[in-house]
Design goal:
This protein is mostly beta strands. Helices cover 12% and strands 41% of the residues. Helix 1 packs parallel to helix 6.
Length: 1467
C-alpha cells in the first residue's frame, strides 16, 4: 500500500502507519469497515470523518486509542453520534473513540449494560476477535437507539423553533453558522479556501481574523480574497507559506448579537522538495565542512529617545566573513530578553547586510532594552541598547501621562479583570484615579466602564456579552484633566475558561496532536466536593475565589454554585442562584466593605447537587494590597558624559511589586523629569539623556497595583561626565638626537587619555646586550609634560630600548611597547635631524593644517626651512610627494586641494645649508572629511564697536577647554586679547586692534575629536573691521528714502521720509529754518515706528513757508537727519501747484471733466470729439458749442457712460473752429474747450492724412489706350490731402503727357505715349505734417515691357473701335403703317473708311427700285423709303454696314395693315 502513495507522502507521519502495532491496525481496519457500513445504513448522506472534523466535531487521536487500551482506568463516555451546537442545531456527525469494554457500557439500558459488563469480565488476553465482534454488535444497537432518540428530539426542537420564528417578536435573530469553516492542512505554495454559511436578521456583518488580527485584502493585494454571496462567505489564501500557519476565525455580528467560528490552517513542506522561492542550495564550503563564520555588528544604533505616537527605526549593519553566496544568517530581535515577532507594532527587515526593526506608533510599553541577535552556524553575536519612550504632549496642561501595559488577568463570561501600570508622570498633581474603556472587536465604539475613577490598578469589567471579544484601554485623571488613552490590550473573549478551552481544542493542528474532548458525564452520578477552595484576590470592590474540581472522573459537564456566609452567622446564601458557573473560578461583587465573609462551593450536574466544599477562612472585604514603602539609599555613579548609573535599596516588605520609577533633577532647578516611563523591576538603572557637565540629584519610588510609593530621599549630587580612567600607553617612540651619553626621545600621545588631561609622562630604559634586554630603569622621577625627553647617563656605543607611560589624575597608565633598539652613538651628520610632534588640525573636506616642532639636532648649520610630504595611506613608498617645492620657514602649513574622503599620511623634513635631513615619523592616517557639527571661527563687531573672534563647539565635554593661539603659538599676553568662555562658546576680544594684531588666529578644543578652526586676520580684513567698528560706535539710522515732498488732495503738502529700521524708542524732531515746530492746526505729524515712515502734513503753503525743512532722528545712540530746501522758483512752483490742486478739488465737487475735450480719428477717417465727465446726475446738462454757437442735436451729440462724443463724418475746412462743452447743474458747472483753428486744425488734418496714407494700397501698374497708368486706392479721400508724385526720387512736373488725378478713392498718374525714357522708379508721397508715407513701384524691365505691350494692344483696339462701321441710330424696332402710306426711315452711319451699306429683307439682300428707294449720302446717312406700302412689304428688314474694322447691323420690322381689317378686329 505504501508503494501506491505519492512520493511526498511516504515519509509523512499521517500516512506512515508503521508506528501502530498489528493489533491496533487490525482493530482500526475492522472498525472503519463496520462504521462505514453502519453509518450508511442509519445515517444516509453522512460525511466522512474528515468532513466531520471540518465542522468542528470532537474526535480522538490514534495515539489516544493506544493509551486507552493500556490504561487500567477506563474513562466514561456517553455515545452521541450527531454533533449539535449550543442551540441544539445538528452540524455533523461524531464517530466516538472507544477505549475499552467498560467505556461503552456506560449510558446504555440496564439489559445492554449487563451484557456489556459480562463481556468486560472476560480475560483481556482472550481472543481479541470475539471481543471485537461482540463490541461491534453492541455498538450498532446502541447507535441505532441513540439515533432514534436524537431524531425524535430534533423534530420536536425544529417544531419549537418554527413556532418561535413565526412569532412576530422572533423575526429578528442573532447570527447562526449553518456551515462552519473547517481546518486545513496543506502543502506549501498551495491555495486554500475557508468558507462558511451564516444566517441571521438583520444580515450579519462578517469579518475574518488571523490570530485575532482583522484581515484586510487591500493591505495584502493578491494574498487574500474575500467574497460574500448568498450568505456564503469565503476567505481565499493564495500560495500559502509558513507564515500562513495560524488560527483563523470568522465573526458574524448584527444588532441581536455576535457569533464566531474557528478554523486552523497548517502549512507543511516535504523535506525532500526544493522550493524555488526558498534560497537555493549552497554549493561550496559551509561551517559543517570546516568553514568558521566571523560575525561583526557595525554601524550600531545607540540609546534612542522617542515620544508616544512617533515611529522609530533601529538598525545595524551586519558583516559576515567569509561571505557565501545566498547564505542567510538567523536574525532575531529581543526586547528585555523576550523574542519579538512581526506584528502591527513591530516590523522587521533584513536586506542581506542590514537588520532593521521599526517600532510603529511608539507607546511606553515599547520602552526597554532591545537586542539584535545574529546567529550563524559558528555561533552568534548580539548587540543591545536601550530605547526610552516619553509621554506625548498632553491635551490639557498638567494632565497626567497615559497608563501602560493594559492586560486582562481573568476572563469569564460575565466579567474580565483588567490590570495596568501607573504612569511615571502625574502632571504635577496627584492622580485621582483611572477610567477603563472597552471596545467590542470589529467596532470603533469605546464605552467607559466605570462612572467614578478607581485608584486600584486593577478593575473587573462587567456587563459584557457572552462570546464576544473585547479590547480595553485605560485613562488617568487628575485635577488638571484627562490623560491620553493607553495602548489597547490584546483581544479577549467574554466566556468561561472551559468554553474557551473547548474552542481552542481544534485551533492548533500544527502541534501534531488531535485534542480529545470528553463527552458528557454519565447519568446518575452526583459529583463530589470541590477541593482547595481559596480566596485568590480581595479588594473593596470584589473578591475572587478559585478551587479545584472533584477528583472523580466524568466531570466534564459539572457546574458550580457559590455560597457566602457573613462571619458570626450560620446562614449560607447562594450567590449564583440562576446560572451555575462552569469554570472553577468566580468573582463576587456587591459585598459590604469592612464585613467578613466565608465562602464555599458546591458541584452540580443533572444527577443533583453535591456536598459543599470546606469553607474558606473569614475574609474581610477591603484592599489587601498596601502601597509599597519608599526605596532608600539612592546612589548615583558617573558613567558616561550623558548618563549616570543609579542604584538603590529595594522597598521593604513590598507585595506584588511592579517596579520602580526613577526621576532626576538638575541641582537648583527643582524640576524633576522621569528617567524611565516604564517601571523597572531591578535596583540598578542607567539614566540616559542627561546634560553633560550639569549636576543632578535622583530619587526613586516603587509602584504596585495599589499605587505609587512616596519618593526616596534625594541622592547626593553627581556631575554628569565620563568616568575617569588611566590613559592608554603612548606609541611611536623615536630618537631625535643622540650624543655620547644621552639620547632625546619623542613619542605620540595616547589614543585614549582616560577622560582627564594627561599630567605627564614617565620614561624607562633598559640596556640590550647581544639581543637580550636587561632590567628596566626609571629615566625620570618627576613627570615631564612635553612629548620629548632627554635620557641622560647612558653608556656610549651601548644599545638601549625605551618605554613610556602616561599619567593623569586617575593614575599612571600601562607602559608602551618597548621601542626599537637604538644605539647610543653621537650623531655627526651635517644635515638636521627629524622634526617631531606632528599634529593635524582643522581637518576639512579639501584641506587641513599640519603643525610640527623643529628638530632637536640642528646639524652643522641652523635649520632654514621645511618640506612637507604627502601620500595616500595605502599607496606604496614611491608615492611620497612634496606639498611645497620651496621650503617654508614656518612650523605650520595649511595643505589644500585634498580629495574628499581620501585617507592621507604626512611627514616633514628639515633643511639647512648642508641639505635636507631625516624625515619625521609619519602621522596617523587622516581622512579628508569635514565632521558633522564642525564650526568655523566667526568675527563679530558688537554695538560698542568691539571686535571679537568667536568659536562654538558642539561636542564639548566637561573637561574641554578652549585654547587660542596666534600663528599656532598659544597666546599668553593678555594685553592684546581678552578670552571669554561661556558654555560651549569662546570669544577672543581685541583690546585695541592695530597692525601688530595681524596674523592667523586659531582655537582648539581639548578633549574632543579634533575640534579646531582658524581665522586669517589680514591687513585688508583689519581695515574693514575697523571701519565696521567705527560705524557701530557712532551708528547712523539708515534711511530707505530721504526727506521728500508731495502734494495730496486739496493741495495739502506732505513732507515724508522712511527709516530702514527704528525701534519703539526712536524719536523725531521737526525743524523749520532751525526752529522746532510741533503738532498744531498748521502741522500734522505722524511717526509709524513699525514701517519707519515719518511724515508732516501742511494744509497749504504761504510765502512765510519758504525755507528749509529738517527731520532729526534719534534711536538710542544712533542718529540721522534729512533736510529739504524749498526756496525761489522751487517753492513758487510747489505753491502754485498746491493752489491748482485746491482749485481742482473745488471743481470736482460738482460736475466736472475727468478728461478734457480731445479728438480722435477713427479708422474710417471720421473725427470724434470726446471728453470724460464725472460726478454727474440726471439733472446735469451737457451743451456743445462751436465758435460760440450751440450745436444742434442733429450734429451727432452723444452722452453715454460718462463720455461725451461728437462725430464729424467728413471733415473739411468748414469744420474748423473752437469747440466747447459746458457741464452744469445746481452744484456748478465746468467748461472744456478745444481749439481746432489754424495750427490745431492743421494738426487734426495731419492726423487724418496719416490715417488716409496708412490705408493706401501698394502702388500698382496698369495700361490704357493712351499710355501707362500708376495708381493706388485709399479708404477715404479728403480734398485737403496733399500728395506728391516722384520719378527717380524727384518730384514730377506735370504736362499734357504726364498727368495725375483722383477718381473716387483712386489716386493715379497717367503717362501718355510712354517710351523707354519713362522707365524707372515712381513713388507717391502722402503728406501728414510729420514723416509722411511713400508708396513706390519700379516701372522697368519686364514690368515696363508688359505694360507697354498692353498699351499698344489697347491703343490698336481703340483705333479699330473708333474706325469700325457703326449704325448710330434712327431706326425703330417695329414700324406699323397703313397700306398705301409712304415709309421713310433714316439712320446715321459712321466708320473710317466709309463702310459699305447693304439692306436686307427677311435676311435677303434688296436693291433700290422705284418702290423701295435706298440711299447712302455723304458717307454718313442711309435712308430707306417705300413710296406706297402694301401688305407685301410686311417683314423683317436689316441694314448691314461693313468696313475693314468690322460689321454692324440694325434691324426693324415693318407691319402693314389695311384699315378695314383693323376696324373689324376692333369690332
Amino acid at each position: 500500500m505504501s508503494g501506491s502513495l505519492p512520493f511526498y507522502q511516504k515519509n509523512h507521519r499521517h500516512y506512515d502507519r508503521g508506528y501502530r502495532n498489528k493489533e491496533t491496525a487490525s482493530k482500526m481496519s475492522q472498525y472503519q469497515s463496520s462504521s462505514s457500513s453502519s453509518s450508511s445504513r442509519y445515517f444516509a448522506g453522512s460525511s466522512t470523518s474528515a468532513t466531520s472534523s471540518s465542522r468542528g466535531l470532537r474526535v480522538s487521536s490514534h495515539s489516544g486509542l493506544e493509551e486507552s487500551r493500556l490504561s487500567p482506568i477506563p474513562k466514561r463516555t456517553k455515545p452521541t453520534y450527531l454533533a449539535v451546537d449550543k442551540e441544539n442545531q445538528i452540524i455533523g456527525y461524531v464517530i466516538p473513540i472507544f477505549r475499552g469494554s467498560q467505556e461503552f457500557a456506560t449510558g446504555f439500558s440496564d439489559t445492554e449494560e449487563s451484557r456489556v459488563r459480562d463481556m468486560a469480565r472476560r480475560d483481556l488476553f482472550s481472543s481479541g476477535l470475539e471481543m471485537e465482534r461482540s463490541e461491534l454488535i453492541s455498538r450498532k444497537e446502541a447507535m441505532r437507539e441513540s439515533a432514534d432518540r436524537i431524531c425524535l428530539n430534533k423534530r420536536i426542537h425544529d417544531q419549537e423553533e418554527h413556532s418561535k420564528r413565526m412569532n412576530e417578536d422572533s423575526l429578528m435573530h442573532p447570527p447562526e453558522f449553518v456551515i462552519k469553516p473547517r481546518s486545513h492542512t496543506v502543502w506549501e505554495k498551495q491555495c486554500v479556501r475557508l468558507h462558511c454559511t451564516v444566517t441571521g436578521w438583520p444580515n450579519p456583518r462578517v469579518v475574518w481574523y488571523k490570530n485575532n488580527v482583522a484581515i484586510e485584502s487591500i493591505a495584502n493585494p493578491g494574498k487574500y480574497k474575500l467574497e460574500s454571496k448568498y450568505s456564503v462567505h469565503s476567505l481565499d489564501i493564495n500560495r500559502c507559506d509558513f507564515d500562513d500557519t495560524a488560527q483563523y476565525h470568522v465573526s458574524a455580528m448584527n444588532s441581536k448579537g455576535e457569533l464566531s467560528a474557528f478554523a486552523s490552517v497548517v502549512v507543511k513542506r516535504f523535506k525532500g522538495e526544493v522550493d524555488e522561492y526558498m534560497p537555493a542550495p549552497r554549493h561550496g564550503p559551509v561551517s559543517e565542512y570546516g568553514v568558521t563564520f566571523q560575525t561583526h555588528i557595525v554601524d550600531k544604533f545607540g540609546v534612542s529617545f522617542g515620544r508616544e505616537g512617533e515611529t522609530m527605526s533601529l538598525g545595524c549593519t551586519v558583516v559576515i566573513y567569509p561571505s557565501l553566496h545566498r547564505y542567510q544568517p538567523e536574525v532575531q530581535w529581543y526586547k528585555d530578553g523576550v523574542l519579538l515577532s512581526p506584528s502591527k507594532w513591530y516590523q522587521m527587515h533584513w536586506s542581506g547586510d542590514r537588520a532593521t526593526l521599526t517600532l510603529a506608533h511608539l507607546n511606553k510599553e515599547d520602552e526597554g532594552l532591545y537586542t539584535l541577535r545574529v546567529t550563524t552556524k559558528s555561533g552568534y553575536e548580539t548587540y543591545s541598547s536601550y530605547v526610552f519612550v516619553r509621554d506625548s504632549d498632553a491635551e490639557m496642561e498638567g494632565a497626567p501621562g497615559a497608563p501602560l501595559d493594559v492586560r486582562c488577568l481573568d476572563a469569564n463570561k460575565d466579567y474580565i479583570i483588567v490590570t495596568w501600570k501607573q504612569p511615571a508622570v502625574d502632571g504635577g498633581h496627584s492622580i485621582l484615579g483611572y477610567f477603563v474603556d472597552r471596545c467590542e472587536v470589529g467596532t470603533n465604539h469605546w464605552i467607559q466602564c466605570n462612572d467614578t475613577p478607581v485608584k486600584f490598578a486593577r478593575f473587573p469589567v462587567t456587563g459584557l456579552v457572552e462570546g464576544r471579544s473585547y479590547v480595553f484601554r485605560v485613562r488617568a485623571i487628575n485635577n488638571s484633566g484627562m490623560s491620553h488613552p493607553s495602548r489597547v490590550s490584546e483581544p479577549v473573549a467574554a466566556m468561561d475558561p472551559g468554553d474557551r478551552a473547548r474552542l481552542r481544542g481544534t485551533s492548533a493542528p500544527w502541534t501534531g496532536q488531535i485534542i480529545v474532548t470528553e463527552e458528557e458525564p454519565a447519568e446518575g452520578i452526583v459529583p463530589g466536593r470541590p477541593l482547595e477552595l481559596q480566596v485568590t484576590e480581595a479588594t473593596k470592590n470584589y473578591v475572587v475565589l478559585s478551587w479545584k474540581p472533584p477528583g472523580e472522573k466524568g466531570l466534564e459537564g459539572v457546574r458550580y454554585y457559590v455560597e457566602k456566609c457573613v462571619s458570626g452567622t450560620d446562614t449560607w446564601q447562594r450567590v449564583n442562584t440562576e446560572i451555575p458557573v462552569k469554570s472553577p473560578r468566580f468573582a463576587l461583587f456587591d459585598l459590604a466593605e469592612g464585613k467578613s465573609y466565608s465562602f464555599r462551593v458546591r458541584c452540580c450536574n443533572p444527577a443533583g447537587v453535591g456536598e459543599p466544599s470546606d469553607p474558606t477562612e473569614a475574609t474581610t472585604v477591603g484592599d489587601k494590597l498596601d502601597i509599597p514603602s519608599a526605596p532608600s539609599k539612592v546612589v548615583p555613579i558617573r558613567n558616561t558624559d550623558t548618563s549616570v548609573v543609579v542604584s538603590w535599596v529595594a522597598s521593604s516588605d513590598a507585595k506584588e511589586l511592579v517596579g520602580y520609577y526613577i526621576e532626576g533633577s538638575i541641582v537648583g532647578s527643582n524640576v524633576w523629569e522621569p528617567c524611565n516611563n516604564k517601571p523597572v523591576n531591578v535596583t540598578r538603572f542607567i539614566c540616559h539623556g542627561l546634560m553633560t557637565g550639569e549636576k543632578y540629584v535622583f530619587r526613586v519610588r516603587a509602584v504596585n497595583a495599589a499605587g505609587l510609593s512616596g519618593f526616596s530621599p534625594e541622592s547626593e549630587p553627581v556631575e554628569v561626565k565620563a568616568a575617569i580612567a588611566s590613559p592608554a600607553p603612548p606609541f611611536g617612540i623615536s630618537v631625535l638626537e643622540c650624543v655620547r651619553d644621552s639620547m632625546v626621545l619623542a613619542w605620540k600621545q595616547p589614543s585614549f587619555i582616560g577622560g582627564a588631561d594627561i599630567s605627564g609622562y614617565f620614561v624607562d630604559y633598559r640596556e640590550v646586550v647581544d639581543g637580550v634586554p636587561g632590567k628596566w630603569h626609571e629615566a625620570n622621577i618627576k613627570a615631564v609634560s612635553e612629548r620629548a625627553y632627554r635620557v641622560s647617563d647612558l653608556m656610549e656605543n651601548r644599545k638601549y630600548q625605551f618605554q613610556v607611560r602616561a599619567a593623569n589624575m586617575a593614575g599612571v597608565g600601562i607602559p608602551s611597547l618597548p621601542s626599537d633598539t637604538f644605539p647610543c652613538k653621537e650623531w655627526t651628520i651635517a644635515v638636521p635631524g627629524p622634526p617631531h610632534d606632528l599634529q593635524v588640525r582643522e581637518v576639512r573636506n579639501d584641506s587641513l593644517v599640519l603643525l610640527w616642532k623643529p628638530p632637536v639636532y640642528q646639524g652643522r648649520d641652523a635649520v632654514n626651512g621645511f618640506y612637507i610630504d604627502i601620500k595616500e595611506e595605502d599607496a606604496p613608498v614611491e608615492a611620497w610627494r612634496s606639498v611645497n617645492n620651496k621650503a617654508t620657514e614656518k612650523t605650520y602649513m595649511k595643505i589644500k586641494n585634498l580629495k574628499e574622503g581620501e585617507v592621507f599620511v604626512f611627514r616633514v623634513r628639515a633643511q639647512n645649508k648642508a641639505g635636507v635631513g631625516k624625515t619625521s615619523e609619519v602621522t596617523e592616517p587622516v581622512s579628508a572629511v569635514t565632521k558633522p557639527g564642525t564650526n568655523e571661527i566667526s568675527v563679530a563687531v558688537d554695538d560698542d564697536g568691539i571686535i571679537s573672534l568667536n568659536f562654538e563647539c558642539c561636542d564639548l565635554t566637561p573637561d574641554s577647554k578652549f585654547v587660542w593661539s596666534k600663528n599656532y603659538e598659544e597666546i599668553t599676553d593678555a594685553s592684546r586679547l581678552t578670552m571669554e568662555t561661556k558654555g560651549n562658546k569662546s570669544k577672543a576680544v581685541f583690546n585695541t586692534p592695530a597692525e601688530e594684531d595681524i596674523g592667523i588666529y586659531s582655537c582648539i578644543v581639548t578633549h574632543t575629536d579634533g575640534a579646531s578652526s582658524s581665522y586669517d586676520l589680514s591687513e585688508q580684513e583689519l581695515k574693514r573691521l575697523l571701519e565696521v567698528s567705527h560705524d557701530h560706535k557712532f551708528p547712523i539710522i539708515p534711511l530707505k528714502s530721504e526727506l521728500a515732498v508731495e502734494l495730496l488732495e486739496k493741495g495739502r503738502v506732505r513732507f515724508w521720509l522712511q527709516a530702514e529700521k527704528i525701534s519703539a524708542d526712536g524719536k523725531v524732531d521737526y525743524v523749520f529754518n532751525e526752529n522746532l515746530i510741533s503738532q498744531g492746526e498748521k502741522y500734522k505729524m505722524n511717526f509709524d515706528k513699525s514701517t519707519g515712515v515719518i511724515e508732516m502734513i501742511m494744509e497749504s503753503l504761504t510765502p512765510a513757508d519758504e525755507g528749509t525743512f529738517t527731520f532729526r532722528l534719534k534711536d538710542g545712540k544712533a542718529t540721522n537727519q534729512s533736510s529739504l530746501v524749498l526756496i525761489g522758483d522751487v517753492f513758487k512752483g510747489l505753491q502754485k501747484e498746491s493752489e491748482f490742486q485746491m482749485k481742482e478739488w473745488v471743481r470736482k465737487q460738482g460736475p466736472h471733466f475727468i478728461e478734457y475735450l480731445s479728438y480722435e480719428v477713427t479708422p474710417e477717417c471720421c473725427v470724434l470729439l470726446k471728453c470724460k465727465v464725472g460726478n454727474v446726475k440726471k439733472e446735469t446738462s451737457a451743451l456743445w458749442y462751436k465758435d460760440g454757437r450751440e450745436i444742434k442735436a442733429d450734429e451727432h451729440l452723444g452722452f453715454t457712460e460718462g463720455v461725451l462724443k461728437l462725430e464729424i463724418a467728413q471733415i473739411s475746412k468748414k469744420d474748423s473752429g473752437v469747440y466747447e462743452v459746458v457741464l452744469k447743474d445746481d452744484r456748478g458747472k465746468d467748461t472744456s474747450k478745444l481749439n481746432l483753428t489754424d495750427q490745431g486744425f492743421k494738426d487734426l488734418m495731419n492726423e487724418v492724412f496719416s490715417f488716409i496714407a496708412n490705408s493706401s494700397t501698394p502702388l500698382k501698374i496698369t495700361s490704357t489706350d493712351e499710355g501707362i497708368r500708376l495708381y493706388t486706392f485709399v479708404n477715404f479721400y479728403n480734398d485737403l490731402l496733399q500728395v506728391t508724385w516722384h520719378y527717380k526720387d524727384s518730384a514730377i512736373s506735370f504736362s499734357d503727357r504726364i498727368k495725375s488725378g483722383v477718381v473716387g478713392e483712386q489716386l493715379w498718374l497717367q503717362i501718355t505715349e510712354p517710351t523707354e525714357k519713362d522707365t524707372g522708379k515712381y513713388a507717391i508721397e502722402f503728406h501728414d505734417g510729420k514723416g509722411g508715407l511713400r508708396r513706390t513701384v519700379e516701372l522697368a524691365g519686364q514690368a515696363f515691357d508688359d505694360a507697354f505691350a498692353e498699351f499698344q494692344r489697347l491703343k490698336s483696339a481703340a483705333i479699330a473701335e473708333k474706325g469700325r462701321a457703326r449704325v448710330a441710330g434712327g431706326l425703330p424696332d417695329v414700324v406699323t403703317i397703313q397700306e398705301g402710306k409712304a415709309l421713310n426711315l433714316t439712320c446715321n452711319i459712321s466708320g473710317d473708311p466709309v463702310p459699305k451699306v447693304t439692306w436686307l429683307k427677311n435676311d435677303r439682300e434688296i436693291t433700290s427700285d422705284d418702290h423701295c428707294i435706298l440711299k447712302f449720302e455723304s458717307g454718313k446717312f442711309a435712308s430707306f423709303t417705300i413710296t406706297a406700302v402694301n401688305t407685301s412689304d410686311t417683314g423683317k428688314y436689316s441694314i448691314l454696314v461693313k468696313n475693314k474694322y468690322g460689321t454692324e447691323s440694325g434691324d426693324f420690322t415693318v407691319s402693314v395693315f389695311i384699315p378695314e381689317e383693323a376696324a373689324g378686329k376692333k369690332k
